[in-house]
Specification:
Length: about 325
């Protein structure tokens, strides 16, 4: 659905996108993550035909975004990170206005708008002025606006930013619905654990380059190679720690008042064997658990030492 090849965007001498290459298959929910200034919004704006690349190719549904912008626009619904809503409209009028702009006949709009409002949980706000809606509601209304022409691809730039936890959950539930409807979704976010729950794949971008891409589970498995095991033992804690230090795949052992923390690079089978060894040694194990590796850890590990662009280079931030 999306094919990006050597996409580069320069603002003066500053390179925001540096030969970015990635593709996203139809029906995929793709999480685009990266530190501030990494180039996510720039990529999304190019895909949405709102910004011209300096060089390289971006295609949506087989159409080149610079050569066939009209065809691309029919296929996409774009929600920018900063959006405006026309406050003097009522919710229904707002969607009707956008529907009309897309040339959707009135009779069709009359059917479509209640469906969209239901999808984004705004049915009871149909006759409210946009002005009176909360931020979360406005954001959901914007999402409904992106769906008016029934696009196949949604490009959502931080749709949950600035929302409180409840509003984020609501947004996430709507996105799940859209996934079930078969939409391809490119979504950027800083709320990484939330993304992990709903995306099929993630791409990590830094300094305008894709530095990791894959299925969430695969990337998490990569991280598992360096998992940390927390072991709580009744009595003989130091003896247990010494024993663990000598075991295969154990790279480091630290003890504190919470127990023994073991850095372990083995497989699940080897981890089970490690526990069995401890029991055989008659250590009284109270708990033996694996520290959770979530997308946040993955992200921090991959972008270790990163952050936003070099301050000297990043004169625009
Ligand atoms: N119009 C512009 N002129 C100059 N520099 C720009 C312009 N737009 C973006 N940039 C710079 O390009 C870099 C990439 O910006 P972009 O908005 O794509 O990053 P991002 O990953 O979306 O960041 P964030 O998560 O903070 O929104 C940033 O350093 C930004 O300051």
């Amino acid at each position: 659905m999306i094919e990006i090849t050597n996409l580069t965007k320069r603002y003066g001498s500053f390179t925001a996108l540096d030969s970015l290459t990635m593709d996203i298959g139809q029906g995929t929910v793709f999480g685009f993550v990266g530190p501030n200034g990494a180039g996510k919004s720039t990529t999304m704006s190019i895909l949405a035909t709102l910004l011209s690349p300096t060089s390289g190719i971006a295609k949506v549904g087989g159409y080149d975004v610079t050569e066939k912008p009209k065809e691309v626009r029919k296929l996409i619904g774009y929600m920018p990170d900063f959006f405006g809503v026309y406050d003097n409209f009522k919710t229904t009028e707002y969607l009707d206005f956008y529907g009309a702009s897309y040339g959707i006949p009135r009779a069709e709009r009359l059917k479509l708008i209640p469906q969209l409002l239901e999808l984004v949980n705004l049915t009871d706000k149909a006759d409210f002025y946009v002005d009176s809606l909360s931020r979360g509601m406005k954001q959901r209304l914007c999402l409904a606006r992106c769906l008016v022409h029934q696009p196949e691809l949604l490009i959502l730039d931080e749709p949950a930013s600035g929302l409180d936890p409840r509003a984020r959950i609501e947004m996430r539930e709507i996105l799940k619905e859209l996934k079930l409807m078969g939409k391809t979704i490119l979504i950027s976010s800083h709320i990484l654990p939330e993304l992990a729950e709903m995306v099929d794949e993630i791409g990590v971008i830094e300094y305008g380059k894709l530095i990791a891409k894959g299925k969430v589970a695969d990337i998490q498995n990569r991280m598992k190679a360096n998992r940390v095991l927390h072991i709580r033992v009744l009595q003989r804690q130091e003896e247990c720690a010494q024993f663990l230090k000598g075991q295969p795949q154990v790279t480091m052992v630290i003890t504190d008042e919470k127990g023994v923390h073991v850095h372990f690079g083995g497989s699940d089978e080897e981890q089970a064997a490690l526990l069995a060894q401890c029991l055989q040694m008659s250590f009284q194990i109270v708990s033996f658990s694996e520290a959770m590796t979530n997308l946040e850890d993955v992200f921090l590990e991959i972008t270790k030492g990163g952050g936003a662009h070099d301050a000297a280079q990043n004169q625009y931030d």
